[in-house]
Amino acid sequence: MTHPPTLEVTDLQTHFFTKAGVVKAVDGISFTVGKGEVLGLVGESGSGKSVTGFSILGLVDPPGEVVGGSIRFQGRELAGLDDEAMRRLRGSKIAMIFQDPMMTLNPVLRIDTQMIEAMQAHANVSRAAAYDRAREALTRVGIASPDERLRAYPHQFSGGMRQRVAIAIALLNAPDLIIADEPTTALDVTIQAQILHEAQKLCEETGSSMIWITHDLTVVAGLADRICVMYAGRDVEQGTVDQVLDAPLHPYTHGLIGSVPSRNRRGSRLEQIPGMTPSLLNLPPGCPFRARCPRAAEECLREPPLTRHGEGRSARCFHPHEEPAAEAVT
Amino acid sequence: MSVISEQAAPAEPVPAKPESPFRRFVAAYFESRIATLALAVLAVIVFIALFAPLISPQDPYDLGEVTIMDSRLEPGEAMFSGTTAVLGTDGAGRDMLSAIFYGLRISLGVGVTSGVIALIIGMSIGLAAAYFGGRTDAVIMRIVDLQLSFPAILVALILVAILGKGIDKIIIALVVVQWAYYARTVRASALVERSKEYMEAANCLALPHARIVFRHLLPNCLPPMIVVGTLETARAIALEATLSFLGVGLPQTEPSLGLLISNGFEYMMSGKYWISFFPGVALLVTIVSINLVGDQLRDVLNPRLER
Amino acid sequence: MSVFILRRLMQSVVVVVVMSLIVFFGVNVVGDPVDLLISPEADQAEIEATIARLGLDRPVHEQYGYFVKNALQGDLGKSFIFGEPALKLIAQRMPATLELAFVSLIMSAFVGIPLGVFAGLRPEATTSKVIMAGSILGFSLPTFWVGLMFIMVFAVMLGWLPSTGRGDTVDLFGIPVSFLTLDGLSHLFLPALNLALFKMSLVIRLARAGTREAIHQDYIKFARAKGLSSRRVVLVHLMKNIMIPVVTVLGLEFGNLIAFSVVTETVFAWPGMGKLLIDSIQLLDRPVVVAYLMMIVLIFIIINLVVDILYSVLDPRVRLKDIKA
Fold first, then answer.
1. Model-level pTM greater than 0.80?
2. Quick check: B307 contacting A, CB < 8 Å?
3. Residue A199 main-chain phi, psi, to 5 deg
4. Which of A270, B87, C21, C287 could lock onto C77 through a cystine, CB 3.0 to 4.6 A?
């Protein structure tokens, strides 16, 4: 890579200090996103993927706190950055798209207000100029008659439209990184496909990097360049999309891919990963996947090492599936 | 490779021993220091109200004990009879402390009595509305809403204007002001309970209406009623005091705290503050304690979603 | 939008009619109208004249007709004490009461909302705890006693402010108002504050609850993710959302303020409708009481109408739902 990576996350830890105890939502995740690259962050609910996204933007609400690790954006350290500097980055250099389009737009404010303020918060644009850019942005995401839509309120839009508006808002200030937190989960399948297509096209056009957070492997299959699989707050496998999907290393990834219905042959039983995700309040010692893993052994009671299997390819397992010349790093 | 088969670790730690809901409720209540203090103060006030004749230094309404020579003594001065007027005396020579004790008795008595009657009436109506549903419910709720949209003080004033003076008339006015609030609360929780399964079961067994309502529905509607009861009683006491102060409340023969304050009004300009001040403080402490207790009860009895 | 207003207007008319029926029923049918509406000191000629005017010798439904006719002409009986038409007396006193209630409303809003929002944004801060404790005191303290204490401390002991009465007035559109003069303001301050305390506490608690709930919503997080300054997030996004319940309560409570001014007016000898009512009750001047009742009902209905309209202006979801319907 000739450019420095857009985002470099190293050993990020975000814990929630609740009355019931410490919930280690994110416990040591590391990944990199290159310029113009799409990273799929995949995991079940409770794996810590959304919290990772919020941690990058400094939007973790108390009782949560980023307690360790480093987040380097274009070479600049974000962890511990002061509020005002962080605010200047949000919505301008790093944008976020949320999961539920119903509630992300303020129901009592008009669309144009919500779009124009996103621009005026970062640059000295006149209202007229901002209005034009807003109109243009809506057209770009495929919304017809933008002038009418601008003067409307969120509840007058369908779910798919609202999400398009959210994407338009994210793109307004030409960010270098977009974090999309399950943006299509709440939409119909047909709309999902449309949104995915739009998002991919826009990313190619604008050259911004993207982190697409999802629990659905099929979504990232067509969209992402690289995949990072999360489990119980940790990254358990990383690699290019082809590497991870065609030759998964970690037993969890293996199980995930196996359980995708389309992969199944008719008539044979659907594969399932037995058991449930562990409570993040009371993590068992050693590998968090141990209790559900068909390959678990004695040594899995210890913290598994991060093994590298080539450039950008890693897994956190004592017994990864394919074992070429593996060098234990940790 | 040996496969260790294990059960997934339990999600939450199991509590050590099962506690009765009552125990838990009491423990949760006392978590707040302020609420505990309020409850203690309230207990003292109730004690005073119940035993006023026994613990007052003087019976302020016994003409034999009161003399005009003691009139308007400052707090701490000695009275004719030798006892110290700890809180001073009023225009007629009555010891303020004793007057306050007796006043608490009446204020609390009227407030609680009207509250209990309003609760019984309101609860019956609310339960009936929820249980029978349909037209009955609609009509009753219309009346309740109409009643509630009127300011309590106006309703009370109009009633007093029509009915005239007297302790029973005041109680009636206070009951009319309060019942609707009880009715609405009971109906709301009864409606929730009604759709639960145990009600369907009771219905299937074809138990008589009264039995279903009293043995099954009622106990589950009690918690919000307790909260409402506490807060409404505080309101009733404040309302009675206001009416008495305005001169349209209890007659002079039953001097509640409101009347005491009203009597002291004229002396305020000449700086004899204690005649209005101390009864006011007593009233204030009573109302505030009841409100604090009610607040804590509400917080403890309702599940709250804290992030 | 106008469909909405029209519909609400029609509903209000219905309520007025219903209320007039109830009042009429209470006075003419349940009570004894001769007793209630004719002064005990009237001579025979006057009694007969009044009976004729009110149609008391006619059947009930015709009596109602007389009642409505008289009411629409502004005749709701004559005061026993003053000899003047009751409605005129009340109308004379209304500006004073409305002024007091209005200033109290503004005080509760402008003090209550910021305090409540602050307490909601920083619930653990000491200031917030003090504010909440204050709010409990605010609605527990009996208004009349607080009024007395105000007079005692600020007027008698400190001598900063006058203790009773209304200050100098100037005419604004023909209505005498006292908040435009310095003397008027100094007389207005204590009673308005006294009346406002209760409402202020309610507003504080409401604003705090609204803030605590709204601050966790996704749209607040999204606003922050857009890089908006905290100031804008709170003042625009948050406020607009909590304004809806707060304004509704404030509006509905305005009627209560007017009713409750009865107490404050008595304590501060403020020459408003409320004081007139109390005096009339004590002096058994019943036509005034009846007239007051009708006026209050009318005021309430107007307030409810205004609040509904305001609500639809603030919450676009209500507005558009109605148009579709």
1. no
2. yes
3. -60, -45
4. C287
